[in-house]
Amino acid sequence: MEMCLALLISIACTVIATFWWLSLREIDRFTYGGKVFFKTLWHLLPAKRQPLVNVKFTNGFEMMTPSYTGKPVIEEVLNFKMRPDDVVIASYTKAGTTWTQMIVRMICNAGAKKDVASKRLANQFGFLEMPEVVSALGKGFQSLEKWSQAERRFMKTHLPFKLLPYELQHNGVCKLICVVRNPKDNCVSLYHFHRMASGLPDPGTWDEFFASFCKGDIAYGSWFDHVHQYWKVSQERKDSVYFVSYENLQKDMKSEVAKMAKFLEKDVSENEIDAIVEHCSFSRMSSNENTDFSEFNKAGLMDFSVSKFMRKGQVGDWKNHFTINQNIEFDELYKARTKDWTLNFEFEI
Ligand code: A3P
Questions:
Q1: CA separation (Å) from 137 to 1, 145, 159, 277?
Q2: Is residue 198 classed exposed, middle or buried when 0-12, 13-18 and 19+ CB atoms within 10 A define those classes?
Q3: Among this protein's residues, is 158 annotated catalytic?
Q4: Ligand 1 center from residue 336 Cα (angstroms)
Q5: Which of 68, 91, 94, 306 has most ligand 1 atoms within 8 Å of its beta carbon, as the pocket-test mutant?
Q6: To pair with 94 at 20 to 30 A between CA atoms, which of 8, 160, 243, 265?
Q7: Which residues have CB under 6 Å of ligand 1?
Q8: Which residues have a Cβ under 8 Å from the Cβ of 106 and sit 6 or more positions away?
């Protein structure tokens, strides 16, 4: 009798769990599956790296996706509802996203800079294409959906323009800030990031990674396609799309902060700009546990013994990596791929 009851209860539980699972959106299944995987198998795996997956999305766009995101997530991103006061920071990975995030939060919270610096930056932004698998590490897609209507949403993304929410692609519903960095330094920074971030595939040797970068065979696709698409849009939508370069931030952070404040329609005094520049310096941000990604290191998702997130923060480090031949090859590629561009990059300052 007791055996029968136990059997009935376990059948009922299985049926309820199956219905619950089937009632979930694909993104939430992906998230729950990811949580279980992260808590169990992930720690047991000798090699934690997952390969990239080439995904074709319902709008026909194809991209190599890293393991922390995927089709179920990005399909939801495409249909994500924007709000007019949203602020989106879009960049190719390692272009200076975190730096710009900090500046933008400080501009929008002028007068409360200490608050911004003393809270985890990853919790002040939502990472658009990141499902909330390890919520302790920062806000992801689901938090953006649930974000209080009373508070302005800040989000970051590395998605190409064609995978942004349709509302954002088709009209300038909110402010979009694009961060770009010269491709040689971007490639070097990305190489070191691949070496230490377990969510990305093993980069192989520098020569192998350099070849993949040139071909665009990496997470989020080609640097050239990514940057060019955003640049074209910024030219058509000057009121809602703003371009900032890593090199300009390095050369004159103060005037870049002032220009960004103007774009964000924020009155920020000269003194406040000085304070923002101070808070957002490389030395301050690399010694602030709220901005240096040390939580990821503690969680085993990054390995700072291989390379730190706040690595060098310089323009021109590519010279320490590119061979003479690689430099010639890249210059030729750059010339061919950017011949119609009106956007110029500085490779040293
Ligand atoms: P390096 O690897 O060249 O040091 P992202 O935030 O897009 O992932 O970019 C990370 C890159 O920006 C890293 O480059 C990091 O050191 C650099 N960076 C972050 N904050 C910075 C700051 N305040 N000043 C200069 N560089 C910064």
A1: 48, 17, 20, 26
A2: buried
A3: yes
A4: 28
A5: 94
A6: 265
A7: 91, 93-99, 189, 192, 280-282, 285, 310-313, 317
A8: 113, 116, 117, 275, 276, 279, 280
State which ligand 1 atom lies nearest to the alpha carbon of 185.
3
* Tens-digit pLDDT profile for residues 150-183: 999 999 999 999 999 999 999 888 999 999 999 9
Residue ranges of domains in the chain, CATH in brackets: 52-337 (3.40.50.300)
- Which numbered atom of ligand 1 lies nearest the CA of 311? 4
